[in-house]
Structures are given as C-alpha cells and as structure tokens.
Amino acid sequence: MKNTGLRLAVAVAVLYALFVSFMVTKIADESTLPGSSQITVSGDEITTAGEGLNAIIQGAADSSGATVVREIRDLHDASARHFYIATSPGRQSESNWLEDGYPGFSHNVSTFVHPATDLEGVDPRGKYYVIGPNDALDSVSQVFQNLNYSIETSKSVVSTRAVVSTILVGALGSATFVALLLVTLLTGFSVLTRVKNYAILRLHGGTIPVALKRDLRQELPATIRTSLSLTFLSLVALFFYNGWNQLGRYFSLALIVIAVAFVVIGCLYVATLYVSFDSKILEAIKGRLGFRVAVPATYLIRIPSLILAVSLIASTFAAAMSAHQAKQSLDAMAQTGSAARIVFEGHVSPEEMDKLAYASGKWLKDQDNAGNTIMAEPLLEKSDGTEFSEDVLMVNRGYLQRNPVIDSEGNSINDVPENRITVMLPEQATTSMEDVTNSLLANVRGNYSPRINHVQLRDHQTHPLYGISEDGRNGNSSQENAVIVAVGSNSGLISDDDYMASASQGWVLMADAEEALTETPKEFLGTWIAAYIPIGQIAANESADRLEALRLQITSALVALLVLLATAVGLAQIHVRGNSQSILVRFLHGWGFFSTHRWLFKGEAIVLAIAIGWAVVTGIWAAVQSSISNGPFNSADLSIYQWQPIVVLVVAVINLLLLLFMVRRRTNAMIRTHSEETA
C-alpha cells in the first residue's frame, strides 16, 4: 500500500534542503570568498619596507604556498567587487581566474579579477583572503606583522555556526520552521491514515520493528527515486543559472541538510508509530486513533501553525509595503543624476582616524562651499529633547541649487551664504522659529553664535530626500511642508568632524561621483574613503533585495497557511472518528450542530485566544523594548504589529469555516452511509 504522506514529506524535505543549500551558498558568495581564511590589515602608518603592495602579497603567496587575494570595493557599483590575486606556483585553480574569471555562484554580485601587479602604489591596509594550506594564514599574517601592521584573522569566512544560525534563526529561520511543521504534519498523518493497516499487522503478531522493516522495504525505493529526481532537476536548473560554479560547496551542504531532514522524518515516523501501536486494537480496526493522544498531537502542530501563519502573513504585508516604498525611492532616484553616497572604511588606528575625520570633514566643507555636495539631514529633536511637530530638514548650498524653494513672496531661494544659517518655515507651520533656533544653538560647540536669518515659505512644497531615511537606508523619497534649515559651510553650526560623521551616515552626498573621484585627495581615497556609490544604484539594489525578501515571505506565509488548514482537515477527521458514537446518539436525539460539537468550538476558542494573546504580548513587548532603548519603532516591525490583529481575525475565520465545513461533511457522510465507526 503506497504511503503518500511519507513520500510527500520526503519530497518537501529534499526540496527544502536544496533550497537552503542554494540560499546559503548564494549569501556566502555575495558577502565573502568561500573556502578561504580572512585577514584584516590596519595600522597607524603606510609602509611597505621599500616594496610595493604587489611585491608584498606575491612574496607572501610564494612563501606560504597559498593564494592571497586583496578585495577592493568598486568605486561606483555596490554590487561589484575587485579581487587582486597573487598565487604560488602550485595554485593553478586560482591562477585560472585571471583568464576564465571568478567562478561566482550568485548573479547578484559581479567579481572582477586582476593580477597582483595592478596593486602597485595601493595602501596595504584592507581586507585579504588566503586560500591554501592550514599554516598559510599564519604565514601571510606574519608578513604584515613584520611591517608593524595590526592584524585580525578568521580561520574560516563561512563557519558552521554561521550557516546553522542563518538556517535556524537568520534569514531562513521562518521558512525552516514552516518546512519543519509541514514535514511533521505529513509524517504524522502518513502513520495515522494507516492505523487500520497496523492494527491488522498487530493481530497477526506483528511488532514495531516488523512494521518498520515492512514500511522501509516498501518506501525506500520511492524515497530514493524522489530524492534523485529532485536533485537531478536542481542540478539542471543550477547549470542554467551559473554553469555549476561552486557545485561541490552547494552539493555537500545539500547532502548534509538532506541527511538531517531524513533523520528528523525517521524520528517523527517512529514516534508516531509507537503512538499508533499503543492504541486499542478495536479502535484501530475501525480506523480510529486513541482520542486522548490524537487531539493533543494535532494541537501541538495546530497552535504553532496558527501563530506562525499570522506572523508570516502580517510580515508579508509589511514586506509588500517596504518593497513598494523601495520602488518609489528607486523611481525618485532616477532623477538625481550621478549623486553618490560616500563609503568610509577605517583600516587605520583610532588616533589616525580622528585626524582623518577632521581633515576629510574640512575637505568636504570646501566641496560644500563649491556646491559639490548635497546635504539632506533631518533635525529630529528640540533643545529640550522633545520631537518637533513637523519635519525639519537641514540642507546646504548644493541642495538648494538643485532643489530651490519658494518664499511667501514668490521668490526662488537657491543659495545660502557660506557664513550664515537660514531658517525657513512654511506659512502654516506650527513649529516656532524659536524652537528651531534653540535646537540649532544647542549643537554649536564653544561660545560661538552663528548668524541666523528667518524666511517664510509658501505652503505645500515638496522637498526630495535623495532616498535616505532616518536610519540611513532608502526610505521616503520626499517630505512635504517641512521646515527647511539652510546651513552655510562656514556658519559654525557643523564642525569638521561632525560634517564627516554626517557624510558617513548618508546625510551628505557627493553631487557627481566621477568629479568627486578626481577631486579626492590621494591620502583619503582607498583606505579612508573606499567608494562613491551612486544613490540610484543603492536604491536599485535595495529594491531588488526587498522584492526577493517579499517573494520568500509570500512563499513561507502560503505554506504556513496550508499547514494550518491541513490541521483543520485532520482535526475534523479525528474528532468525528473519535466521537462517532456520541455524535450519532446526539443526532438521533435532535441535538443541533453546535451543541453536538461544543467541545470542539471551545478548543478553537482557546486556540484563538492564544493567538490574540500572542499578538498583544508581542506588540506590547516591542513597545516596551523601544521605550527602554529610547529609540523609534523600526518601521517594518511597526507595520507587522499593525497588521497582526487584522490577520488574526481573517485567518481565524478562514480556519474555523474550513473546520466547520469538514466536520459537517464527515458527520453527514458517517450518518448517511452507516459507517462502521458508529458500531
């Protein structure tokens, strides 16, 4: 007799293992160099002991018998990286990268390979990967330590702990829990639907080991065929995706996850089999399972399924809103030209970092005065620590030149004197000039008093934010009716190091990435200022990331809802079979439907109360945590908590309607056909 439930459980487990392997390999490939060790080199001064960096890493590669890779970010594309490689004579596979290209797994990142000779004149401080013998990491590290650099090392850039964390609690955590619930449901029901078969086996003297051997003999060929077929299909898909790059890494992880999944299925199957053999023979012959066992077991799956389905569906709505917001930001960024965000990388000592912060801040203020930077920074709090009732946006000369504002008399304001501050309030603003002025003065260092002008703006003006929200990520594309504070570069409001800090948070952009690259002093570019990334590229990357996250959320939510509804079908069958005699008696005595099944409705009311309580408690806990940390709600979390009550109601209604339909259908079928279950 074919065990469809078990075969489906195996198929789900194999499919999910292949999916997990793909995602983990993809994430690792996008963020690091898999299969390598990592060295981060930092220090006070730049020194090469008379050699160029190219000679240093080539010598390190030759002495260690390894391949040494220097990673440098692309100056304009956040999805691109550059590998400069030096190989020892015995490392042919990495040498081939120079001709054949890097065998990347993911399509989301582009890797360009260069010879180490191109590193001549480059600062040695930065990130390196080492591929080779076990002692190669120490050998290469010693080369940089001999030059008095500080070294941080990692034996493996992709650790087992990181992989397990990603699968269980990271990006794939909810999907893993959904898959586990579905496998548990299918495995459990695969045994419960065969309880009559096991009862007949028991009547003939069969034991649990006998049943296991028989089931294994029947299902092992189908399990092997299913696993091999799905694996073959995944390999075909992977060939068309990336030509089987990093196939060994993908396949080894898939085999490990499949093996773990099979162990889980085996344990679940044996546990359910023990429950089946523990039931009474007479009940089992009639196709029933011990009522006191079956119902709790069903609810052990049903309650987590309901909570998970509610959480994932609410998260899906939040993810959809986030993806829509990112798309709006992307559309807005299409109008910003080549404005670019400054990416800082501090592979320097704390003392040198302070010096560079002041020096680069001063240079950025000079660029500000020339109109080459764009500032769009929110001013969040008054001088007393309370929030403004309206949006307050700090801008600079470069911003106004590209986005002029209109005063109450119709004049266009497209500049601000370099030694002054201009506070501009809309005509119907509730925020006072005094509140804004006091907030600005509270940020001034020393006894210096900046010169502040006041201007009245026309209402209903829209001010672009260049895609940067309060947490530095792509957010709302603009603000309407905001209070505008135009800050001159030499007004005294922002110190040199504070200006650099604003740039590091994304509040200050370079107006033109190409021009900035040529204007940047050599002592900044490479080690301190790592890249100028066009904000249009940042918006495109984030929009793609959020869309991918939305697809994963939708899939997980649908599967979680499917598991929940499947438990409703199973519970209806268990309830009617387990209470067939009492249901028949009550029917013959004219009891109504709700009276006949009242304990079931009480149980469902308790499940609903648990789900509502969970939604309330998680929302309150998040609010308490936010108040303790004195920070605002994460917008995604806030959206989830707003949607959860509605989702609880909708899912509960769908779930209850299906349960009632199946109970009525099973009851009517049992009574109409005079089923043996009523005997």
TrEMBL record:
Keywords carried by this UniProt record: Membrane, Transmembrane, Transmembrane helix
Membrane-spanning intervals of the chain: 167-192, 222-244, 250-277, 298-321, 554-576, 605-623, 643-663
Stretches assigned to coiled coil: none
Keyword Transmembrane helix annotated: yes
Domain of life, source organism: Bacteria
Name of the protein described by the UniProt record: ABC transporter permease
Provenance organism: Glutamicibacter bergerei
